[in-house]
Amino acid sequence: MKIVMENVRKELEGQTILKDVNVTIDQPGIYAVLGPNGAGKTTIMHLLSGLAKWSSGSVTINGENPFDNRAILDQISFIQESDNFKPTLKVNQLIQQVQAFYPNFDEAFVHHLLKTFQLPLTKKLSQLSKGMTSALNMSIGLASRAPLTIFDEPYIGMDATARKQLYAEIIEDYVNHPRIILFSTHFIEETEDIFEYALIVQEGTVRLFSSLEDLGERAIKVTGPIEEIQTLAIEEHQKLAYNEFMSEAQLNLYVDDSTFEPPRSCQVKPLHLQEFFIDYTAKKGRA
Ligand SMILES: Nc1ncnc2c1ncn2[C@@H]1O[C@H](COP(=O)(O)OP(=O)(O)OP(=O)(O)O)[C@@H](O)[C@H]1O
């Protein structure tokens, strides 16, 4: 599976929603799609799942234009926050329909997930609670095993225990069946461990695309005596945040070079994804 977005621009009602979106994804992985509200995450996911058309540039999935393209739709599973399936269907009817559509659908796995989330087979979708609906949507999306699986903030209403179970199921299923899973979330802290890559979308464009391994080396916090921190030769664009407390200072950085060496009197630790995200998106206009 290979996703290529080149110079993608999307206009809607005279507004520019996306501009200069350039990204290639060709490795299996669980990708965090992060960004402030209104950044363009859902719009990008709609383009990739064939639900919307872009204004200029190109979007291809395995070399094909995904827009309304029946030939590749069974390769893509898109689960959004709500309105995924017809509310008059019963859970077991929905499973039959989806199973007929997705060639890799795993029936035993979906039943395992329904049991895990205590979802009743014979209830209509309209009779499920918000959290149950999300758990069902996620179960269907995961069991579809589509080579491109897209989850757009899919856990609305799911309680903390159910979300924890969900993350464990995603990881286990991904390990056994690697594929491209895009997952947009605002719950960065609790999801960080499931991701291998992060895309940060801001102001209609993909500002950053990185493996978390690389980010772990480049996104760092340096703490030490104020006078030592202040004398560090840091390029302005690498600085994310600076704070002082008593005689100590903390400098959050996104360094270009993993050979960056702070003085011995300073401590270096990787930034958590959420910390990095907050600092990085607060600092606009960076390359
Ligand atoms: N149908 C529409 N008509 C006009 N503008 C729209 C429409 N849908 C979305 N937009 C605008 O496009 C921009 C991007 O929206 P999008 O839903 O992609 O953001 P998002 O990153 O998913 O946000 P959130 O995190 O809040 O879900 C926003 O400014 C939004 O107002």
From TrEMBL:
Residues 3-228 form the ABC transporter domain. SUPFAM superfamilies: P-loop containing nucleoside triphosphate hydrolases. The lineage of its organism: Bacteria, Bacillati, Bacillota, Bacilli, Bacillales. This is ABC-2 type transport system ATP-binding protein. PANTHER family: ABC TRANSPORTER ATP-BINDING PROTEIN ALBC-RELATED (PTHR42939). One of its GO terms (molecular function) is ATP binding. Pfam families: ABC_tran. The keyword Transport applies. PROSITE patterns: ABC_TRANSPORTER_2. It comes from Shouchella xiaoxiensis. Coiled coil: none annotated. Keywords: ATP-binding, Nucleotide-binding, Transport.
